[in-house]
Amino acid sequence: MKVIGVHLDRCTGCRSCELYCAAERGSSQKNLLQAIRETPLPQPRLRVEGNNQSPLPLQCRQCLKAPCLDACLNAALVRDPESNAVVVREDRCIACWTCTLYCPFGVIFPWPERKFALKCDRCTYMENPVCVEVCPCKALELVELDDLDKIPRKKRLEVSRKLAGQKPHKGLLLLDLED
Amino acid sequence: METIHLKTVDPISQEILLAAARREIPLLWERFEKMQPQDGFLRLGLSCPYGCLQGPCRIDPFGRGADRGICGLDRDGMAAALFLRLVLYGCLESGNPFGISGKPAPAQSPVWEKLISRAVKNFGGGNLSPAEPGECAQLLSRPMADPEELIRRALRMGLLALTFAEKNVKEDGGPRTSSISAGYGLLSEKKWNIAIGGQPEDRHLKALAKLAGQEEAQILSLGAWIPLDGSYLPIVCSSGEGELALASGRIHLLIAGPGTDPALIELCRSLGISCLFPADGKEQKKALQRLRREGERLGSGSFTPDSALIEKAQVIKDAGDLAQAIRKKSPKHLCFLGGADTPQQSLGWIPGEAAASLIGKDCLVGAWGDAALWILKKKLCSTAYESSVKILNPEKGPILALQACAATNRIKDLKICYTGLKTCKDLAFALGAAALGAQVCAAVPLPLWGSEKDRKLLMEGLATQGAEFQHFDHPPGAQEILDWFSRNGK
């Protein structure tokens, strides 16, 4: 199963992912300059939260035990058997927003104008997710679930080395995460 | 490489492109693809252009995030200010020949004066003053003007850019037409080829031409139209193909004049081609002597151009000659093509297709810049099409078209298409031509799509002149441009 991994150290918070996600996945024209003239305005399926110092792109984690699947009253949320991603069947969604309340990460968004819930489905039916394609800093990456751990590993090693170089403090546990 | 036909329509360029790809030489298209998609906020005009360090502020076009800048500037103000900034730069690029006095900019001919004064009346009135770029710069220091004012100012900047250019292009007193030769075949004419990047000074060029004459070498331009001794330097390729010409292995020395793209200098470094500045006379001599010494090793490139690939044409430098051609042919339609290559389109696609189709429709087709080079490459300047196709002085292409049409009282029939926009100067000229009453089209998306109000203001402003400034929300195809030319029976 593939998921979208985030290199937090690379994200500059430019929100290109949001912009192009909305244009490609939320509009009928699939063109940014045309999408902004659509009514209702297209909405992105991922959001960049945080601030300049620590921007945080948030999208559906495609939980293996997804609470939203159980929460959905109308079985509009289903797991795609091929990709294992959780997708919204827009024709079945009754816009009750129960899934948005159950999502532990807050990454299912109501879209009242179109009367269905919006969530990242990792662009299951496309070759690559739009957000991954457009990120100018390559902060988003499509990775195998088993490899997801590799993304923060480098960061952990850096932090570990940095801490190891400092004068030890009482009660501070230093982990050497090197293989 | 399966998309090679999307990069350029010229088979010779495709051949060089393939050879360059095999040698892993990075070219323009690789950088363009890596750059995709380009900044969406800026493409829409929703990235704040004001000289302010609180930002950079951006407005969310989809209405979820910020709908105003930190100072309170809304999307209409932001897009209009960005547009004005681009046109202002274009006006400044034209070079102000009058100084910054508040006196009105004098026109060089009565026809031009009449055209300008009529247009100015519709866009704020008063006199068009050379001090206005300074006022616009002041307007762009803090957001205080409304979109109406900013768009009106942009139109006036367009008019001023044309006025500056009309004055700046010196009449050399020589013949009213110049000759131009272009094509890859030029690379096989002499043993050593010296390429010129940008626009070096005249005195440096003359010294270089003298030196080249002594050393069995020739100087060639990489897309720029460089006047020399009443004529133009031969041009190997269009401006978008400069890197291809270098990658062909047939260029032995690059003289990087002001305005040379950094990519050309970098490519010379990686290919081992000497790159010198125009003023380095001694170094140029040494480089040519070194070439002669090391001759055979450096002289044999992988690409062998066919010497027949050279096209020649006469360039019209005087509006009177163009007016005469219009009177003589009295075509139903007056279609002009200008602008530079852009990687957003397959190079040469729009100018080549549009010109070839328009010739058969009782049109007089005029062209300048890269568009003219593509028309030359398509062999549309041969004697068979002599009366239908005219190549214009690139420094004042739209000015000649406007003056000739005004002299023949056919300004309402004038249609100008910019097949690509590279510099702000081209944008300012395009807008200025529209402000003077021409139907103008830009075949690249402009950063105005973030504000419907601004687009409407521009459209309505020009409608008072009976003019149009068409721009697209996508890179249009050749058919769309032809449809635009065909609209309204023109």
Keywords:
heterodimer, A: 179 residues, alpha+beta, 6 helices, 8 strands, B: 490 residues, alpha/beta, four-stranded parallel sheet
Provide a descriptive summary of the structure in words.
The complex is a heterodimer of chains A (179) and B (490). By secondary structure, chain A is of the alpha+beta class. Helices cover 25% and strands 16% of the residues of chain A. Chain A has a two-stranded antiparallel sheet. In chain A, strands 2-3 form a two-stranded antiparallel sheet. A two-stranded antiparallel ribbon of chain A has the order 4-5. The mean pLDDT of chain A is 88. With 490 residues, chain B is an alpha/beta fold. Chain B has 19 helices and 14 strands. In chain B, the strands form 3 sheets. Chain B has an 8-stranded mixed β-sheet, with helices on both faces. In chain B, strands 3-2-6-7 form a 4-stranded parallel β-sheet, sandwiched between helices. A two-stranded antiparallel sheet of chain B has the order 4-5. In chain B, β4 (227-228) and β5 form a beta hairpin. The two termini of chain B are 39 Å apart. Classes of the chains: A alpha+beta (179), B alpha/beta (490). Chains A and B meet through α1 and α2 of A and α4 of B.
Beta fraction of chain A: 15-25%
What characterizes the major β-sheet of chain A? 2 strands, antiparallel
Shape of chain A: globular
Number of strands of chain B: 14
Query: What is the helix tally of chain B?
Result: 19
Tell me the fraction of residues in β-strands of chain B, as a range: 5-15%
Helical residue percent band of chain B: 40-55%
Cα(first) to Cα(last) distance of chain A is 25 Å
Write the layout of secondary structure elements.
The complex is a heterodimer of chains A (179) and B (490).
Chain A: E1 2-6, H1 16-25, H2 32-35, E2 47-49, E3 56-58, H3 67-71, E4 77-79, E5 86-88, H4 98-102, E6 109-111, E7 116-118, H5 130-134, E8 140-144, H6 150-165
Antiparallel strand pairs in A: 1-8, 2-3, 4-5, 6-7
Chain B: H1 4-7, H2 11-22, H3 28-34, H4 40-44, H5 75-93, H6 110-122, H7 132-139, H8 147-168, E1 177-182, E2 192-197, H9 202-214, E3 217-221, E4 227-228, E5 231-232, H10 242-247, E6 253-256, H11 262-271, E7 274-276, H12 281-299, E8 311-316, H13 319-329, E9 333-338, H14 349-359, E10 363-367, H15 369-377, E11 389-392, H16 397-407, E12 414-418, H17 424-435, E13 439-442, H18 452-463, E14 468-471, H19 478-486
Parallel strand pairs in B: 2-3, 2-6, 6-7, 8-11, 9-10, 9-12, 10-11, 12-13, 13-14
Antiparallel strand pairs in B: 1-8, 4-5
Helix pairs in contact in B: 5-8, 5-17, 8-17, 8-18, 9-12, 13-16, 14-15, 14-19
